[in-house]
Amino acid sequence: MEPQITPQITTLADRPELTGALGEMPDTWPRFVLEDLVGWANFPRIAVEFPEYVLVATDQEGTVVARGYSVPFALDAPGRGGLPAGGWDQELLWAFSDLRHGRTPDTAGAVEITVARDHLGRGVSGRMVEAMRENARALGHRELVAPVRPSAKHLRPALPMAEYVRLTRAEDGLPEDPWLRVHVRAGGVVDSVAPVSMTVSGTLEQWRDWTGLPFDTEGPVEVPGALVPVHCSLTHGHAVYVEPNVWVRHRL
Fold it and tell me: CA 53 to CA 72: how far, in whole Å?
């Protein structure tokens, strides 16, 4: 096991010179996840519009070792009130809609916490969750909500997410999933499943390029890194991935 480290964590608003390094940090995201169109259109705007909601962690040498993105939105706006089935995509759409229309946000929504590949397993992820909680509180929010992408769910793609989130460890009752466990240890409470949190669609040729798989059979296709199977239609020449996430509430 690698030794634990204590990174320096600041906001991008405080250290705008790290914007480039933040995007260049090596990560472990599956390529196809980056093809979500809502994320493609809106994620780059977070650093520009909400730099005070972006966290950057550096080691003693000043190297970026983790990043954390969140956005503000009005959860109690008319027509909302509850955490949406649309999860990750929906919170991004709400955040930028609220910005455009001048709505006052009441909630911070986690968008991403990513640790550099060579710093995984060194306690950085837990510190980032704690820092995001503290940052949301400092910005005046009563709650941080997170559409969590369980880190071990890809090992059981056929298991419904609603069943997966109920899996706990016998020794302490904490979630079996490592990333959910980090959130719960930090004070988060599992709320609900967001069944359509992210959607990636493309032609069969695109999916072959993204995954290196043949995509030559009709029906569900298990893809490395995917939390559920991808639905492949040879008849219509496309495949669609609808990812479920898990809403976790952090009361502040």
Answer: 8
**Cα angle vertex 150, ends 212, 191, to 5°?**
145
At 14, list the tokens. 């405080």
Distances (CA, A) of 196 to 57, 160, 180, 244: 30, 13, 18, 5
Query: Identity (one letter) of the amino acid at 78?
Result: P
Q: Could you tell me which residues come within 8 angstroms of residue 59 by beta carbon, excluding any fewer than 6 positions away?
A: 5, 7, 8, 65, 119
Kindly report whether the global pTM for this prediction surpasses the value 0.70: yes
199, two tokens: 């959607």
Q: Give per-10-residue mean pLDDT for the chain (252 aa).
A: 81 97 91 97 97 97 96 96 96 98 97 92 93 98 97 98 98 97 98 98 98 98 98 98 98 96
Rounded Cα–Cα distance for residues 50 and 72 (Å): 8
